[in-house]
Write a structure and sequence with these properties.
about 110 residues, alpha+beta
């Protein structure tokens, strides 16, 4: 059996608003990963959600090598090491969500 190769882990948190909620999300992601997150801006205006084009609404961190492996082990432990088959794509990538960051061990 082949051993999977981890190229990178992308940790994303979209809060949909700028200001205090985004600052809290950035602080949480920095505590979880040990890296400073980058801010992502809205690509277009969505009036129903009150989002304007160019408004900061999300933060993201990309982890590689040992940091990626260590974080992935902790994050998978939060979902009891179970990922649905529908979470995988044809290229071997997968994604999963965690409802509360406090579920991750070591938080």
């Amino acid at each position: 059996m082949l051993k999977p190769k981890i190229e990178k882990v992308v940790v994303n948190c979209c809060v949909g608003r700028s200001g205090e909620p985004l600052e809290k999300a950035m602080k949480i992601i920095q505590e979880l990963t040990g890296q400073k997150p980058c801010v992502r801006k809205a690509k277009k205006t969505i009036r129903q959600f009150g989002i304007r084009k160019g408004e900061p609404i999300a933060c993201v961190v990309t982890l590689r090598k040992e940091k990626a492996l260590e974080f992935l082990k902790r994050a998978l432990a939060a979902v009891e090491n179970k990922v649905k088959a529908s979470s995988f794509d044809e290229h071997g990538n997968f994604s999963f969500g965690i409802k509360e960051h406090i579920e991750i061990p070591g938080t």
